[in-house]
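Inputs:
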Amino acid sequence: MYTVVIGVIGADVHAVGNKIIDHVLKEHGFNVVNIGVLSSQEDFINAAIETDAKAILVSSLYGHGELDCKYMKENMVEAGLSHVKLYVGGNIVVGKQDFTEVEERFKKMGFDRVYPPGTNIEHAVGDIKEDLADA
Amino acid sequence: MSVHLLVDFGSTYTKLTAVDLKKEEIVGTSRAMTTVKTDVLEGFNLALEKLQNAHPEMGDIEAVSACSSAAGGLKMAAIGLVEELTAEAAKRACLGAGALVEHVYTHHLSKKEIKQLKQSNIDIVLLAGGTDGGNKECIIHNAKKLADANLGVPIIVAGNKDAADEIDDIFSAATIEYYIVDNVMPKLKKLCVEEAKKVIRKIFITKIIEAKGINKAEEKTGEIIMPTPESVLMAAELLAKGHEDVEGYGELMVIDIGGATTDVHTIGEGSPKRTEVILKGLEEPFAKRTVEGDLGMRYSANALVSLVSPYEFKKYYEYHEENNIEESAKKRQDNVDYLPDTDEERAFDRALARICTDYSISRHVGTVEVVYTPLGNMYYQTGKDLTDIKYVIGTGGVLINSPDPKQILKEVNKKSDKKLELRPSDPSFLIDEKYILAAMGLLGQKHPKLALKLMKRHLK
Ligand code: B12
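Outputs:
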């Protein structure tokens, strides 16, 4: 059973998707540590340290995801979490931008996988299992 | 007449309170110097003699209960993983059990920290780290280090339960005295300190009382059932909650200014009072205690004055004459029995007490932090919001003996230069005039209703 940390980053209050992700991942046998909405990078990182999580799933819905996620990977490395997989999804940037560009930017920032708006979380479950099995 | 005698073996004084169970009143109180160096019973007997002489009508003593903070009280080290999470949870378990937390360590223990632990005179180590099912590598590493160090003090293991068996093997192989209890933070941000507190108290009763020579008192007093600060916390909780048909006072705060430390206890949820404020951090205990080892009237006088600049000191010191602050503090620290004998010296003590109050409250209350986000300002609260606290109760020699204790206690209030601190905005002040709070915490173990009534009658 893999432990994963989920939450919504920054000043973002969109709570519905977070509840659904929690539910779906639990159904798939994950040990879900949900830090909820309005979470800072530090909250994600501290939670992952104490719970020995294998992956962090960041949600951002309100358009400021890029700003909120800046240096997150660097901060994780600093905290001894370089082995922890990092994912992001939701509506991570403002408006409708070309997603391949967005994906590239987030990958440069150290995210392992970047999901476009409207991604079904079931779809990501397969990726997570695959990534964690390799690790 | 059936009298229940309550005894508090304090660091300076042994204090007695006699309660008449039938008449439901306090017969009298007395005190004598604590005599740990020779035989604690000397001080106790002297105080008892005083009490009996002053109240010849006092009949047979039916029961005795005692608490103690003599010989330095209970000193602990708290070890966790993340500073704000398991290390904080471990620290709260120690404080809630009435201990003084000498060291807090996070992550992997280093050689330097182990050396520090070896040199310090702590009584118990509390080892935490990891949620249940979470990180176990760190706590196991620390257990190994502690086993190698062989500190000669009991270790309470209150971390990730998945690591418990391995730690069990490590400590039993090293023949270390250890206790494995519930994780202080079993789930993220969930505080679970009851079992750890229970074991701290058990070790205190069976080992530490003996090691400090206070157990000699037990033949006369029966078991010493808890550290004094824990009885104060229990008294405060009883007074806040009430018992059966006797109503309590609701959310309240107790501030105890002593010679070595200042303790602050609050009973209350402390949840945000405004809807736009978001709560952060580890869950807060309903009955919360913090202890400041650098804020005390005598043993910590030097440390205390070093916290404030001479300019700031003057804000607390209402005497006009110039005073050499460092010298006056040193005089108190070098001579802990010192009693002020001039107006100037009394004013100096008052200034120290006001600083103890102001600073200890700053460290106890929660704070709000404004975060500027793309969507405007957001408010995050860490710790307890105590703005609505109804009562602030003062105890400890300097408050009890002061002609105007409320002037000192006013330092707890909201301040214009400390806007982000969630301090009480308009509390009523009560003084523990008869110095009975610890005694009432003890009495409350068996006679909660009576203890509650007596507190309501005598706190003024
Ligand atoms: C309901 C809602 C609100 C409610 C939220 C109530 C609440 N507490 O939850 C309220 C009214 C508060 C709100 C406020 C705002 N909102 Co709004 N809101 C919506 C709305 C209509 C639905 C969101 C929702 O619940 N969807 C249903 C859930 C199930 O889907 P989801 O959140 O997308 O999550 C799923 C997937 O995205 C995915 N997913 C999410 N995270 C991750 C992570 C990973 C790793 C993976 C694999 C998948 C994944 O899985 C989830 C489950 O299926 C959307 C529009 C829309 N139709 O999506 C706008 C929307 C998200 N909001 C928007 C905006 C702009 C705002 C505000 C800034 C408006 C304002 N100016 O005040 C504020 C921001 C407030 C704040 N501080 O966060 C924009 C964001 C635009 C952008 N990103 O460019 C949207 C897209 C509307 C729009 N088209 O403009 N909002």
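Remarks. Residues 3-134 of chain A form a domain with the Rossmann fold fold (CATH 3.40.50.280). Chain A has one domain: 3-134.
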